[in-house]
Amino acid sequence: MSNGLTELELENLRHIIGGHSTIANKLEAYAQNCSDPELKALLQRDAQSAQQSRQQLLNFLG
Domain of life, per the record (predicted)? Predict the structure, then answer.
C-alpha cells in the first residue's frame, strides 16, 4: 500500500483525483468558449487550481 493507505482510501483518493481532472478540463473548456474577459480569467484560474490540487494528490500517492 502506498503511504500506509487502505484499499478503500486509495480508491477514494483515485476518485477524487479523477474528479479534479474532470473539473479542470470542463473549466478550461468553459473558459475557451467565454467571451467575457473577467469570467474567462476566473474560469482559467479555477481550472489551474483544480490541476494543482490534482497534482498534489498524485504526489501524495508517490
Answer: Bacteria
Residue 43, judged by CB atoms within 10 A of its CB (0-12, 13-18, 19+), counts as: buried
- The secondary structure of the chain in percent helix, strand, coil, rounded to multiples of 5, reads 85, 0, 15
Tell whether pTM > 0.85.
Answer: no
Burial string for 16-38 (b: 16+ CB within 10 Å, else e) reads: ebeebeebbeebbebbeeeeeee
Rg (CA), the chain: 14
Give the count of beta carbons closer than 10 Å to the beta carbon of residue 47.
20
